[in-house]
Amino acid sequence: MDFLTLIQVLDSTVRLATPLLLACLAGLYSERAGIFDIGLEGKMLMAAFFSAAIAAVTGNVWLGLLAGIASSLVLAALHGLASITFRGNQLISGVAINFLAAGLTVLIAQDWFKQGGRTPSLLTDGRFEGLEWPFAIGPQDAAEAGRPVSQLMKDANPVQQVYSELISGHSILVYLAFLAVPATWWILYRTRFGLRLRAVGENPAAVDTAGVSVVGLRFAAVAICGLLCGIAGAYLATALQAGFVKDMTAGRGFIALAALIFAKWRPWHAMGACLLFGLLQAVALRFQNIELGPIVMPVQVMDALPYILTVVILAGFVGKAVPPRAGGDPYVKER
Amino acid sequence: MEKMPKWADVVLIPLISLALAAGLSALVILAIGEDPVAAVKLMVDGALGSSYGWGYTLYYATNFMFTGLAVAVAAHAGLFNIGGEGQAMLGGLGVAVICLFIPWPHWSLALLFAILGAGLFGAAWAAIPAYLQAKRGSHIVITTIMFNFIAAAVLNYVLVNVLKPASSMDPASARFSETVHLPSLHELLAPLGIAFSKSAPANVSLLVAITACLAVWLLIWRTSLGFEIRAFGKSEAGARYAGISPVKITIIAMMISGALAGMMAINNVMGEAERLVLNATEGAGFIGIAVALMGRNHPFGVFLAAILFGFLYQGGAELALWTKIPRELIVVIQALVILFTGALDNMVRIPLEKIFLAFRKEAN
């Protein structure tokens, strides 16, 4: 494996880690506030469909992004209604939301576009294009030199390869996702809102005693979760791929959940976990079976590795993962 | 004093929730530009109007009985087993191993051992999350979700690398031999002089599923183990005080649950496909959640809810065939049922309790 191949694998790691990271941070806000959310998958799927559908109809990817976020927020509100207002089972509500999204997206896609449950392929304006950084090798240089980008890249020096392939050329949502990590850290650990949010996930009664609304805080957390899932879904359909296809999230919401546990509900660790799981996906995409000396590692092992790692972490063999203490419990005010 | 009579809790609330789900589904059908009344008529005709329709309805219902019972048994122990899908996949592997590698003299013997094999594989797959929950406190919902994905990878690997015949491109096992063919309802009912559709997949597994419903009822309400399971599910602290071992109950309840989910494979793998294919379970493990919620975790309720969902599945397939309503409508209905009977239970319950209290005050 040469250096450029390595850089290309890392590049696709970043692309594949982005939706995981956005969904993982989404789950982080929700679960830190004491609301379990196994409906990340459903919210992403819904947002993926609506962003692709609106982008396809209007030809404007930003309108698509807004539509995706709005649809994800609707599902988040439903989750809030069920688990905060009516104090229902948060896990069951999440399951219902996943199915609702899986069914409704195909149903509406079929009704609107009649293409077997998918949206039309998005053209240039309907997608988030890669941002080309200054001095990076991109399509423009290729046109000037009259050679394809891949060849220019091959001839470039390693620093230029890293810069052009790995750092430059991603869509704006990728940079947004990675900026969201320090932002989340800052909000959680350096603002009053963040302190209260963490407190409401550990001991809602204390927050209530301090005169802060538990319901309000939890709804805010669920809404932020919806917003980030919406961006994650829109990224899937309008940046990573060009359009919506049935079940396109393919378990990413659950991998994000796994990453959240892996990271023990901390933002910087979440980024590490998502990059690791993204790397696994990138490697599985690029190489089918990996030969490690005499042992051939089948591709299915790579597919299952995020889940296996999560179970191992949950089992506490590599440091115990302790969730927010009030997670999953509806809060009942004393009467 | 109870806020409302038991019948209201057991019958009225599920029915109201179902009505809400049906109402919203009708709105969805209207939004697509189809007629909900015509759609329901088509579903009833397609699923219940002929022995062919019944054959499919009961075939699906058999799957859902097993997975619904699986969720219900775990729920009695206060555990949410969301891993029925993976356990049913592994059950399929168990059935395939039994049917492919042992030359059975007769289907009945093969069925007996297939039930054991499916149950054993399913139970083993549920035992690991159960052990981790009981001993290490790993949240069983998350671990069983993870085990669904791991099961899919395991099955994929085994089918592609081990069970796939060398000449075949399809990731599926070889066809089982003729001798392990399970009699369909057509073959079972013909000696009794009842004509039943030849091409419908409902088979003798239906009887096994009904037996399982009975067995679960006996287990939960007529044995001391069942009592311990229910006690543990109601209050872990109370159960511990009564000398019930939380570790033992968690593991046993989950293994029974996994075994039931695994046993679904005698219906879909042995009875219908007669070979192991990828994604043989088709989401039946998840429908078990809706079935158990709808059936209030009671075996008889599960039985009825399973038939209801069998009807929805077969009716939905008919809709997809004759109208422009896609099959995914059933997924939406399933989601709404889970939402209303599970997550939004209080939305129905609290107003209803108020109504009953108001009536009671007037009566006094």
Keyword list:
heterodimer; A: 335 residues; mainly alpha; two-stranded antiparallel ribbon; 14 helices; 69% helix; globular; B: 364 residues; 16 helices
> What's the count of strands of chain B?
0
User: What oligomerization state is this entry in?
Assistant: heterodimer
> What characteristic shape of chain B results from the CA principal axes?
globular
**What is the radius of gyration of chain A?**
21 Å
| Percent range of helical residues of chain B | over 70%
Give me the strand/helix succession of chain A: HHHHHHHHHHHHHEEH
The sequence of SSEs of chain B as H and E is: HHHHHHHHHHHHHHHH
Number of helices of chain A: 14
Name the chain pair whose interface involves the most residues.
Answer: A-B, 45 and 51 residues
How would you sum up this structure, described in words?
With 335 residues, chain A is mainly alpha-helical. In chain A, 69% of the residues lie in helices and 2% in strands. Chain A is built from 14 helices and 2 strands. The model of chain A has no long low-confidence stretch (mean pLDDT 88). The model of chain B has no long low-confidence stretch (mean pLDDT 91). Helix content of chain B is 76%, strand content 0%. Chain B starts with 5 loop residues before the first helix and ends with a helix. In chain B, helix 5 packs antiparallel against helix 11 and helix 13 crosses helix 14. The interface between A and B is large, with 45 and 51 residues.
Topology overview:
The complex is a heterodimer of chains A (335) and B (364).
Chain A (H helix, E strand, L loop, with lengths): L2 H30 L7 H19 L2 H25 L4 H24 L25 H7 L3 H7 L2 H10 L4 H19 L1 H11 L1 H6 L4 H27 L11 H11 L4 H20 L3 E3 L2 E3 L1 H16 L21
Antiparallel strand pairs in A: 1-2
Helix pairs in contact in A: 1-7, 1-8, 1-11, 1-12, 1-13, 2-3, 2-4, 2-11, 2-12, 3-4, 3-11, 8-9, 8-13, 9-11, 12-13, 12-14, 13-14
Chain B lengths: L5 H27 L3 H13 L2 H26 L7 H18 L5 H30 L3 H24 L21 H5 L15 H18 L1 H11 L1 H6 L4 H18 L1 H9 L10 H11 L4 H24 L5 H16 L1 H19 L1
Helix pairs in contact in B: 1-15, 1-16, 2-3, 2-14, 3-8, 3-11, 3-13, 3-14, 4-5, 4-6, 4-11, 4-12, 4-13, 5-6, 5-11, 8-9, 8-14, 9-11, 13-14, 13-15, 14-15, 15-16
